[in-house]
Amino acid sequence: MKRLVVLIIGLSALAAGCEDSPPSGPSQGTITTFTVPLSAANEVPAITNADAGATGTATIALTVTKDGSGTITGATANIQISVAGFPAGTTVTKAHIHNGTAGVNAGVFVDANLASGELVVVNGSGTITKTAVNVPLDKAAAILNNPSGHYFNVHTNLNPDGAIRGQLSAGTSIDY
């Protein structure tokens, strides 16, 4: 009888301890959303031609999954781009996340996969959403660890190096 009581107490303690242990498999995902105001004045150098009055917003929903140790195992982004104030006849040619701080130009870090003319600008305005954009794991980690070290910009036929730009800042995150 004593053995049975000790066994039951031991199993109860073991079961209670298991409740507090971290999961060993993949964790659930996290979506971090960055809302980025875009302006021609933020380009380097600032835009002074016909695109100078253009503005916009990029909303980047970065979805990452991590394994039990916290290492990112998957990353994609849904990117909504809204633009306004462009002159008639504007063609949006591309959009990207770059790895550069405010006032510094840098190379493309994550391509939004926007084809020239895909974002249709009617009466100076337009909106598009690109879904399931591949984000390399190391680049997702860099963006999450230092959002302000990255900017988003939209390129046009008149300004092929960038027409409107904005820095990322701390995003809001939800787990799912």
Name some characteristics of this structure.
single chain; 176 residues; alpha+beta; Immunoglobulin-like; five-stranded antiparallel sheet; four-stranded antiparallel sheet; 2 helices; 9 strands; disordered N terminus
Total DSSP helices? 2
Radius of gyration: 23 Å
User: What is the helix content?
Assistant: 10-25%
- Strand tally, please? 9
Can you tell me about this structure?
This protein has 176 residues and is of the alpha+beta class. The chain has a single domain (24-175), classed as Immunoglobulin-like, CATH 2.60.40. Helices cover 15% and strands 39% of the residues. The protein has 2 helices and 9 strands, in the order H-E-E-E-E-E-E-H-E-E-E. The protein has a 5-stranded antiparallel β-sheet. The protein is elongated. The model is unreliable at 1-24 (pLDDT under 50).
Concise summary:
With 176 residues, this protein is α+β, with helices and mostly antiparallel strands. The chain has helices at residues 2-19, 137-145; strands at 30-39, 55-66, 72-84, 92-98, 108-111, 126-134, 151-156, 164-167, 172-175.
Write the layout of secondary structure elements.
Layout: H1 2-19, E1 30-39, E2 55-66, E3 72-84, E4 92-98, E5 108-111, E6 126-134, H2 137-145, E7 151-156, E8 164-167, E9 172-175
Antiparallel strand pairs: 1-2, 1-9, 2-3, 3-6, 4-5, 4-7, 7-8
